[in-house]
Design a protein that fits this description.
The protein is built from 15 helices and 13 strands. It is an alpha+beta fold. Helix 12 crosses helix 14.
């Protein structure tokens, strides 16, 4: 029996080994790039606000099963939000997408595409707010979406328009109540009602240009790495674009911007926030008996009582800003705070100056 190996067989073996090596190398590169992605660096400049989330499923489950989550769910204002036109528009859009894709947009579905890390941001565009969603979809998610796209449009009344930006394909879908655009860069998915925002993210990633965080809030990079979620809010822009009840508008007027991050540690949520201020808050802090820079414990019942005592000053501040607050606003506020009375002792430290403030609050989950 002849066990000799021909040159052709040797060549085929070498080629197969080389191809296998390239496949393994490509997989390693993809996995390494996925692990290195920091979505927060892809945010374009000047957002109205954003929220980043990691491990969505675990975060939601922890919140839902905690005493803190159960108390928050009982806050009456959440029922009112569901009656707002903008919430109903979101609900309608969700139901429309569910009908068109033939799948429920539930936690399991969302976790498969946005579970590892995702950022939802809002931008002011042509006198209206537009959203931007950036998600670490991963190679598997991109493959699934590409398969759906290759199968053709779900409904002939919708049109897919393709364009290129810095070598990246942008798909714009028309025919829905609102047109939207999406693209993939490496393993990152980008979705927005505003195509220019998708282009901005591509420009930051492909051209290696600095984004919002690297330009303005580099401290958020470290907090993003160590926290389950981070966020930013420009209250000056929010008050210009979003209709807010007078009592909350009055309370938020002194705040210019806010950044925050959350961590879970020893059965507690550690809420760390930093503020820039439009005006000093010394009077507010003194009325609420909050010591500057000292750690102190807060009982929810006592905090609610202090807020009730602060209401006369809040009415004066509102009046100075041309807003008249009646007792109904006080009753509504206290009704929304009442479910939080069941929470345990919170450990707090607040430090403030004329232009800025920081606050660290530890809230027990059980």
């Amino acid at each position: 029996m002849d066990f000799s190996i021909s040159r052709r067989q040797i060549s085929i073996a070498i080629i197969l080994a080389f191809v296998l090596f390239l496949i393994v190398l490509a997989i390693n590169i993809i996995l390494r790039r996925e692990s290195e992605i920091r979505l927060i660096t892809l945010l374009p400049s000047q957002p109205v606000g954003y929220l980043s989330v990691k491990e969505l499923g675990g975060l939601v489950n922890t919140f839902q099963h905690s005493d803190f989550g159960k108390a928050v769910k009982q806050v009456p204002i959440l029922d009112g939000i569901q009656q707002k036109p903008w919430w109903q528009q979101i609900h309608y859009q969700k139901e429309l997408w569910e009908y068109e894709i033939g799948a429920k947009l539930d936690l399991k579905f969302l976790e498969s595409y946005f579970g590892r890390q995702a950022i939802l941001a809002f931008y002011q565009s042509e006198e209206k707010l537009s959203f931007l969603l950036i998600s670490d979809v991963g190679a598997k998610g991109i493959l699934e979406v590409s398969t759906i796209v290759a199968a053709g449009p779900i409904n002939s009344k919708y049109e897919r328009i393709k364009s290129k930006h810095l070598g990246v394909t942008i798909n714009t879908i028309t025919g829905y109540p609102l047109d939207f655009s999406y693209a993939f860069v490496d393993t990152v998915g980008i979705l927005s009602f505003d195509e220019s925002l998708v282009e901005d993210v591509i420009k930051i990633h492909v051209a290696r240009q600095p984004g919002f965080v690297e330009q303005s809030y580099t401290d958020l990079l470290e907090r993003y790495d160590s926290s389950k979620n981070t966020g930013y809010a420009n209250f000056s822009k929010i008050l210009q674009n979003v209709q807010i009840t007078p009592i909350f508008k009055t309370a938020l007027t002194p705040i210019k911007t806010m950044t925050f991050s959350n961590q879970h540690e020893n059965g507690m949520i550690i809420f760390d926030s930093r503020f820039t201020l439009n005006e000093p808050i010394d009077l507010v802090m003194a009325t609420l008996k909050i010591p500057n820079g000292q750690t102190f414990e807060v009982e929810p019942k006592q905090l609610i009582a202090d807020i009730e005592n602060f209401f006369p000053i809040l009415k004066l501040v509102a009046l100075a800003n041309g807003v008249q607050l009646g007792n109904q606003w006080k009753d509504n506020l206290l009704a929304n705070l009442a479910p939080l009375e069941t929470l345990g002792t919170m450990v707090t430290q607040i430090q403030f100056s004329d232009q800025s403030a920081t606050a660290t609050i530890k809230i027990p989950l059980e």
